[in-house]
Amino acid sequence: MITRITPLARTAQRQLKLATYHQLTQAGIPAATISGRSRRGGPWQRLLPRVYLLQTGPPDGRQRALSAVLYAAHPSADPLSGATAALTGGAALALLGIRDAPPEPLDVLVRSPRSVTPAGGVRPASTARWPATIHVSGVPSSRPVRAAADFAARTDDPDLVRSVLANVVQGGWCHPHDLHAELRAGRIANRPSARAAAAELVAGVRSIAEGRARDTLSATDLPAPLWNARLYDPDGAFLASPDAYWPEEGVALEIDSAEYHYTRDSWQATLRRRLRLEARGVLVASTTPGILRDGPADVIAALRALLAVGAARPAPPDVTARGHAQLELPLSVPAPVPVPVPLSVLLPAPRLAPPSVPPSVPPSVPAPVPLPAAYAPKARDTV
């Protein structure tokens, strides 16, 4: 005996047991029946205006996410096509399993010129810049790079923005430069939290703890390190990828969190990595996110001492660093470069004739300003 699948059953199967009011009426369900079945204690539930869950139990995360897309999609369009509505922001990133991404509120893109009223934790955003969409666990969603940019645009917590964007890049869902381009395309790059997070990612920072370390180091006279550079021995064998590394001095900074490093296996792996570095002459400063947050002066003092030792050595360790150079994003239009003013304009004319200088050196070029005595790094080679 062949059982005929009704249109409503087929719709429910495709849409995680969800259906819109338009789909129910199109399947021949009278309005009175829809109202009766979705009353308290009935077999259906009304999750959002015009969106029904065709089961008695509570919805799971996927069903809640899809219900937001069904609510925002055009009534006559296939909501699973991603042509008129798509999940984005933290909710889309949470479906991908990206750490720290909040599953709610449910941000949904709506294709312009339509606009949808917010309801039940759903935050629709009308856009004419429609993204390429993917399906994540059966839910039409924007790609991770667009979802991350939309999350940064609607989140005020700078630490949360920094953490989520770092986890998107660290998980391999997008490249930092692609994220930067998306932030600029969405006119989000002028938001301080998005700007700071994107600059850190291009510089090589890959976690909120590394971001705090970068803030701490930027406020000192210490030289800028390489972030998450990959270190190799002379034979080309991989040694480690410390959080920060100063190649000329051979100094590494390791930020070891309890969550990732204090199980038995991970702690032993951390020690092996440190031994490999120390065997090659790399000086390692270790800290935790808590120490870095509560006692940054202790971390800076340790780094300053190790950098001084490294700078005094005859040569840095025989280690090759390949990775991220310290640089900033061109998130804003760069200021015009000032034109040097000749010293003769700024200073009174000397009474005595100036000493002779080589013809190749213009007399108006000032002498190089020496670095502060607190720390004088070696000349940095290109890595």
Beta-strand segment tally: 14
Silhouette: elongated
Q: Helix tally?
A: 15
- Gyration radius over CA: 29 Å
- Mean pLDDT reading: 79
**Helix proportion of residues, in percent?**
25-40%
Poorly predicted regions are: 325-383
Straight-line N-to-C gap:
72 Å
Largest sheet: 6 strands, mixed
Secondary-structure element sequence? HEHHEEHEHEEEEHHHHHEEEEHHEHHEH
Beta strand %: 15-25%
| Class by SSE composition | alpha+beta
Outline the fold blueprint.
Blueprint lengths: L6 H8 L3 E3 H6 L4 H7 L7 E4 L2 E3 L7 H12 L12 E4 H7 L10 E6 L10 E6 L5 E4 L2 E4 L1 H10 L4 H13 L5 H10 L6 H12 L4 H11 L7 E7 L5 E3 L3 E3 L4 E5 L2 H4 L2 H16 L3 E5 L1 H6 L1 H17 L7 E5 L18 H4 L37
Parallel strand pairs: 5-6, 12-13
Antiparallel strand pairs: 1-3, 2-3, 4-5, 7-8, 9-10, 9-11, 9-14, 11-12
Descriptive tags:
alpha+beta, 383 residues, 37% helix, six-stranded mixed β-sheet, three-stranded antiparallel β-sheet
